[in-house]
Amino acid sequence: MPGQLFKQQLLLLLALIGLLAGCGRSTGPELARVEGRVTLDGTPLPHAKLRFQPLGGKGTYSTGETDESGRFSLQFSRDRKGAMIGTHGVVITTGNPHHEMDDGTSYPLPEVLPAKYHQKSELTREVVAGKNKFEIELTSAQITAPPAKRTAQR
Residue 91: beta bridge partners? Predict the structure, then answer.
C-alpha cells in the first residue's frame, strides 16, 4: 500500500503544478503590437525613450527605447509586448540624469529634443488592433511664426 499512497501523492502534486501553471497566464487589457522608428531632422534617433499613455486617464502606459537605427518596439509589462488599443499621448525624451555604461559607471545625458516632444508633448498616435508601425519624424528647430509684414505708411 505505501506504493499506492506515493502514486496518489505524485498525481496530486502534478495536478497542483498544472493548476499553478495555468494561473500564470497573462491577463489584462487587449494589446496591439507597436513598433516603428524615430528620426530627428531625418536622422535616426538612438537611445530615445518613448512612453505611450492612453488618453482619457484610463489605462496603463507602454514604454520603449530606440536602438542605434532609431527603431523601437513597445512593452506593456515585463511579460507583455504592445500597447492598449486607443488614442495615446506620446512622450519622447533623450535626457537621463543617470545614464549607465556597461562598466557600471554613469553620467548625465543632456536632453536634445525640444520640450514639444516631452514636457509639453502634443504628439498622439492611434493604436489599432493587430500590428502598428509608426514613423515618428521629429525636428530640432522650434517652429515660430513668420515676422509680420510691414506696409509703408503715407
Answer: 51
Which cell goes with 112? Answer: 536634445
Contacts of 151 (CB under 8 A, 6+ apart): none
Domain ranges of the chain: 31-137
Inter-residue contact 75 to 63 (CB < 8 Å): yes
Helix (H, G, I), strand (E, B) or coil at 109: strand
Helices then strands, counting H and E runs in the chain, come out as 1, 13
- In tens, the pLDDT along 42-64 reads 999 999 999 999 998 789 999 99
The whole model's pTM is what? 0.71
Q: State the pairing for strand pair 131-138/31-40.
A: parallel
| 7-45 tens-digit pLDDT | 566 455 455 555 454 454 557 899 999 999 999 999 999
Q: What is the CATH topology of the domain spanning 31-137?
A: Immunoglobulin-like (2.60.40)
